[in-house]
Amino acid sequence: MRRGHVAATAIGALALLAGCGAPVAGNPVPAAGFWSVTSVTPTVIGGVPLSLDGVDLCSLLTEPDLKAAGGLVGAPRTRSETFPDSCGYPLGGGATDDYALVAFYKPLDQVRRTQPAGHEENTLGYPTWLHCAVQDGYRTCTATVAVRGDRSLLVAVEKRDTPEADVLRLLQPLTERAIERLPRA
Question: PROSITE patterns recorded for this chain (predicted)?
Answer without folding.
Answer: PROKAR_LIPOPROTEIN
